[in-house]
Amino acid sequence: MKIHPYNRAAAVDYAHKWALGRNPEYADFETMGGDCSNFISQCLYAGSGVMNETPGTGWYYHSLKNRAPGWSGVPFLFRFLTANQGNGPFGHAAPLDRLELGDVIQLKFAGKDDFSHSLLVVSHGAVPGASNILIAAHSYDCDNRPLNSYSFVESRAVHIDGVRA
Question: Whose C-alpha in 11, 29, 76, 117 is 20 to 30 A from the C-alpha of 19?
Answer without folding.
Answer: 76
